[in-house]
UniProtKB/TrEMBL annotation:
Protein name: Cardiolipin synthase A
Source taxonomy: Bacteria, Pseudomonadati, Pseudomonadota, Gammaproteobacteria, Enterobacterales
CDD domains recorded: PLDc_EcCLS_like_1, PLDc_EcCLS_like_2
Family: Belongs to the phospholipase D family. Cardiolipin synthase subfamily. ClsA sub-subfamily.
GO molecular function: cardiolipin synthase activity
One Pfam match: PLDc_2
Amino acid sequence: MTICYTIISWLLVFFYWLLIAGITFRILIKRHSVPFAMTWLLIIYIIPLLGIIAYLSFGELYLGKCRSKRVRSIGPSITLLLKNVHSIQNICSKKNSDIAQPLFQLCQNRQGISGIKGNQLQLLTNSNDTLRTVVRDVQKACHNIEMVFYIWQPGGQADEVAEALIAAAQRGVHCRLLLDSAGSVEFFRTEWPNMMRSAGIDVVEALPVSILKIFLRRMDLRQHRKVVLIDNYIAYTGSMNLVDPRFFKQHTRVGQWVDLMARMEGPIATTMGIIYSSDWEMETGKRILPPPPNNSFTLLQKKNDHTILVIASGPGFPENMIHQAILTAIFSARKKLIITTPYLIPSEDLLHAICIASHRGVEVNIIIPRHNDSFLVRWASRAFFSELLEAGVKIYQFEGGLLHSKSILVDGQLSLVGTVNLDMRSLWLNFEITLVIDNHEFGSELACIQNHYISQSCLLDAQRWLDRAYWQRIVERLFYFFSPFL
């Protein structure tokens, strides 16, 4: 009996160390970033069983068997559709400013997407105005409406959008709605999905969360895009979820969320429609093909010639595209760099690029909310302040609510606006979308908005920050340890 017990014990120890060795080897061969890999290894060695379960659940990027198969089949068709768009004469930009040229060239080579000319572009800074404008466009829709959002929370003006969408479907407009399962959990618990489906709207719950599939698909991989497409001609994207800020997350006591959206008219809607069709096919297995653009789009160039580049990220799109694009934009800065982000947990490369820009003599301003809805992010982001301040970066803490806008402005010329936070999830994991605009007039408009944010912010004093309590430094470093997962 004793011998049998000893043998079983040794077998358990052997299989335990074999499992640890196997996971360690798996982490090393994946070529993760060093901080990411070291953090996982420490977690696995300190709390082995829980660490292994956590790594198998959240450590690798996988969609599951069906979605992965769809992603592989979607790629060639997306490439062909983009080539068709670029085959239209006089629609693609061939010359950019010196500041924008490296970024546009990167995207052309990696995504096959260059800037699209002939678009009207409007920035929307007031959430109420944004929702009213969306309702108006939905009411005028004739053929099709496509939407994708991370969060749709019923209440207030969000219900007006839902009612307008139902009315559009009832008059024969083909409506498709793609909502993230985790972000829109409250929406799917209401009667709105059934009401919409009864009206003929295709409502799809993207990346469903299920404890039963936790080892079959990464559950924290989310559909984070915010896009509205109407009649293959009007497009919206930006930081705003489909919520009424008067009712959204009031229990967090951080104030109303402050967002930035872009409304576009022109051929750029076709490019965004191709990205949407990719998301739709990945989730449903059904292919929708936006109609090809025609030469009539080029007539817009006589009225307004905004050149817009769309960068999409997530499984199925070029790896690390958003991360490389932001790095390229930062390295292009010569005079001034302004960044707004609600969550500041940059990669080591981005952190160093921002600091290097400041050391090169670039005036670098970062605007973040003073109060954040995430306790973990709030403390983890503070761990980066010291290095940024030492490099001469100005950090402004916005006090007019939760600043949720995501924007980068380089030398008043190159603008990036979209859904991407400066955190690991947006940079490496989620489905995101960003607009790149190479236009000085648009840059001036974005600068006015960013300066308005600064006017409602408090500049972080470097000396006072150095004098903060020692216990705060300990907490910051503790949460910094988890920054690769935030």
